[in-house]
Amino acid sequence: MTEISTPLPVPPDDPKRNLVVARPNTDESLPHVGLVGDTYTVLISGEDTAGRYTLIDMLIPPGGGPPPHRHDFEEMFTVLDGECEFTFRDEHLVLRAGETINIPANAPHHFTNATDTAARLLCLCSPAGQEEFFASVGVRVPTRTTPPPALDAAAQAAFIAKSKALAPLYRTELLLPQAD
């Protein structure tokens, strides 16, 4: 039998916090970040939510998606358009438009768009902070649908080195293959 405790009262409204409305197709003030071939638009930042979560609109081109990684925060994806193949630990599954997956904290995972058309996802991270990692390693692009610039071999090596160096600061571990 569980013990019932007296609930705490709901805290008062914080008038310093504002309503946030995100319009990713028309709001030029939203940050659009290109990385790993994808374009991520931060709809709601940790600054907007007092650090509780961040919400990111992700445009994933054919062949796109992040490398295997893990982090100590929850990450949820809802596929808005198209489909992506997710790998969670050693389980592989395909998510299509309208479907949602929650990745528990610390679990190894990655996803890829294995189709020939772009996919669009909403990604919610709780608590917030992942948007700061993306801003630190990515490059700003002008719109939600602008692809990041292509990287030559040297630029790609520099991006990987920077990502590996900064990932621990954002509670993230990249699970990249070891170089020989």
Computed CA radius of gyration, to the nearest angstrom: 18 Å
Residue windows where pLDDT falls under 50 for at least 5 positions: none
Helix-strand makeup class: mainly beta
Outline the biggest β-sheet.
Answer: 7 strands, antiparallel
Describe this structure as you would to a colleague.
This protein is mostly beta strands and 180 residues long. Helix content is 12%, strand content 34%. The chain is built from two helices and twelve strands, in the order ββββββββββαβαβ. A seven-stranded antiparallel beta sheet has the order 8-5-10-3-2-1-11, with helices on one face. Strands 7-6-9 form a three-stranded antiparallel beta sheet, with no helix packed on it. A two-stranded antiparallel sheet has the order 4-12. Strand 6 and strand 7 form a beta hairpin. The termini are far apart. 26% of the residues are buried. The model has no long low-confidence stretch (mean pLDDT 94).
List the SSEs and their pairings:
Layout: E1 32-35, E2 38-44, E3 54-60, E4 69-71, E5 74-81, E6 83-88, E7 91-96, E8 100-103, E9 109-112, E10 119-126, H1 130-137, E11 139-140, H2 153-166, E12 172-174
Antiparallel strand pairs: 1-2, 1-11, 2-3, 3-10, 4-12, 5-8, 5-10, 6-7, 6-9
